[in-house]
Every structure is written in C-alpha cells, then in structure tokens.
C-alpha cells in the first residue's frame, strides 16, 4: 500500500486520543474519514502530517517510514477548515508561496502558479487579494497552493465546513474531479455522510479513537460490521445491539391492518411528516413500541425516514413491518452475516473491504 498507518497511538496525559489505528491506502485513492466529534479524526491527520508526535506506531508513505521526520520535510500537505490565505499577498503569491520557501526559481514558480490558476478555473484572479474572493474561491486557491507542491499525500480536514450548502455541494464535486484527474492520494475528514460517500473511494468510520470499519462506501452501508456503524452510518433498525434491519427492507402499512404475514416483525409507528427529495416521497416515521414477536426492543422512540405510502395520511398511526429473513445478526467477531440463504450459515466473515498494515 502507498500509505500505511500501523498501530498509530496518541495519548495526552495517559489518555488515548488515537488507539491502535491501522489504515492502508493505495496510490491515487481517496479515503473518507467519518465519525462523531472527538473520535480522533483531526488528530490522526495531524499525526500523519507530523504536527503531533506519536506515542507509538508508525506512518509509512511510499515505502518510507516518515514517523520521525519533521513536518516540513514530509511530502505531505494539509488543508484546514479555513483557507488560511495570507491577506497581504495576492492570489498568485499565495499559490506560489510554498515554492518560494523551497527556493524554486521565481519565473518557474510564477509559470506553475498560472498553470494552477487555469486548473482551478480562476485564470484572471492572480492579482486579486483574498478579501476580494468568495469563500468557494478562497478554498480553490488553498487547494491550488497545496497542489503546486506536488504532495505524495494530501490531508483535508473538513475543508468545506464553513461554506453554505449549495456552494459546498458544487465545490466538493469539483474537488473530487480535480483530485482524481491529478492522481492525488488523499485523506478527507468530514462529519457529512453524503459527502464522505461522494468524495471517498474508500470509507473509514472512527469510534472511540479507533477505526470501527473500513471499506467501500456501499459495502459499509450494506454490510455494517458493528452496531455502532449500523446506527451511525446506515439507515435501519438496530435490535438490542445484536441485529440490524436495513431501511429498504421496511414497509409501512395502515395500523388497522391486522393480517400480518408469518415471519414478519412489526412495530407501531406514527407518520409525523412527509417530504419529497430527488423525485421520491418519503415519510418521517416515529416508532412507538417494541416488536412483540421477537421481543427485541427498539429504542423507546426511533425516527426513520421511509419511502412513503401515500395512501396513508400524515399524522396517522401505522404498522412498520420487516421480514425475519432480512435481519443481519452481529456475531462475536463484530462481523455480520445474513440468515436468509445458505451462505448465511457460513460463519467465515468476509474481510474484502478491510485494510490492514
């Protein structure tokens, strides 16, 4: 692998903020790092960049151990939540600043700077100052400043968090295209699940200072390996921390309907609201009770977004059903297996998406 974090551990006053983190990334791949606040995502980036010393473990980049290397010598560039452009410098001067520090010939630096301005679709902005730019333009300049150094690894720490929703959507799509076209290896930290799916070729979910699961976004979504991943990243119902029912397997029926097919689980719920997104109607349903057949309780109240049954009015009570064959059970190794076919009886967990040092 091009990037390897092997047993990366960081402690403050004896308390771990990173605990035996293992990550492996292929060259040219983008890894989205997703998780709740305080799980160590930004700290991991800072350790890889060299801004924080490791308590134990090592970081290997392009077959070189960079664990003890000073940050200024690492072929790594980090982008932060704010663009952090120098206000007294022009856009071109900001972009070429890193080359100036490295002692690159001025004419060569300027030529490279204008090439990057073309690349970020801002060819006429070289003489402007940061205060004359929009938030999205400032982030484009910050990306150009990073790319001009030709880093082997680019670290992005929630770079779009300060942008409004529409601008955030457009610039993240643009950044994804640029990174792919340039063949940049990157780690992208975000709190946004949709953003993590769009940007990353791979997805790593952090919880309690560890990597909980790593793999392709769709694989993680369809086959969560732990109750936390199922609750945090996937859509559906987690039963007693033992099993998971995917959202797409749930159906909404009128509450007056009494005939329930054998082998179905049922919950009582209420349609609180209805909305349309991407041309599809969805109901926001609150589950009220537990499943009396399996005696596996849901939380006291659980809110789900389910494809709407428009024959039922908003505010009405409903029955939410699922077939027992569609349940995933978490086993003792925190992997999951499905119980509705012969493959499900084979307890050899598949680790295709899991990357190790």
Automatic annotation (TrEMBL):
Enzyme class, first EC level, given as a word: translocase
Alphabetical UniProt keywords: ATP-binding, Cell membrane, Ion transport, Iron, Iron transport, Membrane, Nucleotide-binding, Transport
Pfam family, one: ABC_tran
Domain ABC transporter: 3-233
Any one GO molecular function term: ATP binding
EC number of this enzyme: 7.6.2.9
Protein name listed in UniProt: ABC-type quaternary amine transporter
Species assigned in the record: Desulfuribacillus alkaliarsenatis
